[in-house]
Amino acid sequence: MKVLPIVTISFLSISLIAATTLGIGGGMTRPSYSFISSIPTPQTKYTFYSSTLYGPYNKTTKDLDIECSYTYHGLTRNNACDRLLVFVGEDEEHTLYKYETHINVNTTILDGHYAYISKSIPNILYYIDYGITIKCGVCSNNDWQFYSPLIKHIYPIKQENINPLNYKKEPYEIKNRSFYMNDTEVIESFKFTSFQDYIYSSIFGTIELTDFVFDYLYPLDFKYKSARLLIDDKYNLFPGLNLNNSNYRYIDLLLKRESDKVSINFPPYMGLDENHYIMYPYYVGHTKVSKFYLPKNHKVELESTSFILEVNEMGANKTSFSLPLKLYLDSFFFGDCENADYCVIGGIRR
Amino acid sequence: MIMIFISVILMTCSTLLFSYSFRINGINRLIINAPLTIFETSVPSYLEELYFNKNQIKESYSNYLNKSIKNYCNSYEIYYRFFYPNDNSTCEDYCQGVEISVEADIFLFYKYNRTMFYLITES
Question: Which range among A169-183, A240-254, A272-286, A287-301 shows the weakest confidence by mean pLDDT?
Answer without folding.
Answer: A169-183
